[in-house]
Specification:
Number of strands: 9
Radius of gyration: 16 Å
Helix content: 25-40%
Shape: globular
Structural class: alpha+beta
Strand order of the largest sheet: 7-8-6-5-4-3-2-1-9
């Protein structure tokens, strides 16, 4: 999605930046993991296919993707390459043609050492706030493998409720309708977030 190609969101634990070609090699290494392939229902791609996927995600109007960086590493880094700070990604898919206010959210914390530290929770909150304030979304869905208990618990803590269970796909669907109280709660949870122009913000750290 071109809308967020120059947007950087600075949180307390994570920084969200657009998915660029600079991030592809590390992302490609992550997706060689059979565990991540299983958790994300993904097929392994070649590096060339991964670059092509990155380009298509940037151009597609129905996909909004941010790379998740470790904010502490990003703030302190000596290496100017963002690749050294990457911990995962977060996506919104706007694929329901009958309901443009519905977004399917996916969060992946790919670095095992970074799981269980609240990175996924803050990344999801930042993305949901972005979806509500910039994309006009009022409903979110998350489709998660039945065995992925940490992700299910995380979305339940974010007020999502289970609405479906597919034994065929072994998948749980959780949903959140953003009522006015939920909107106010979400904005309060993300009131610390600072939005900057991506390249300008990156330059400050180099």
């Amino acid at each position: 999605m071109r809308l967020n190609q120059n947007t950087m969101l600075l949180g307390k634990k994570v920084v969200l930046v657009p998915y660029t070609s600079e991030h592809v090699p590390r992302y490609h290494e992550w997706m060689k993991s059979e565990e991540l392939q299983r958790l994300t229902a993904s097929e392994p791609l070649t590096l060339e296919q991964e670059y092509a996927m990155q380009c298509s995600w940037r151009e597609d109007a129905d996909k909004c993707t941010f790379i998740v960086l470790d904010a502490e590493k990003w703030q302190a880094r000596l290496d100017p390459a963002e690749e050294s700070c990457m911990v995962g990604d977060v996506n919104l898919f706007l694929t329901d043609l009958e309901d443009p206010t519905l977004g399917e959210i996916e969060v992946m914390i790919a670095e095992p050492s970074c799981r269980g530290q609240g990175f996924g929770t803050e990344a999801a909150l930042l993305m949901m706030s972005y979806g509500v304030t910039k994309l006009g979304l009022t409903k979110f869905e998350a489709k998660i493998g039945q065995g992925n208990e940490p992700s299910i618990r995380m979305f339940q803590k974010l007020h999502f409720e289970q609405v479906a269970l597919s034994s065929v796909f072994q998948e749980v669907t959780l949903r959140l309708t953003v009522s006015e109280p939920e909107r106010q709660w979400l904005l309060a949870q993300t009131s610390h977030v600072e939005e900057k122009a991506y390249r300008e913000g990156s330059a400050e750290q180099q």
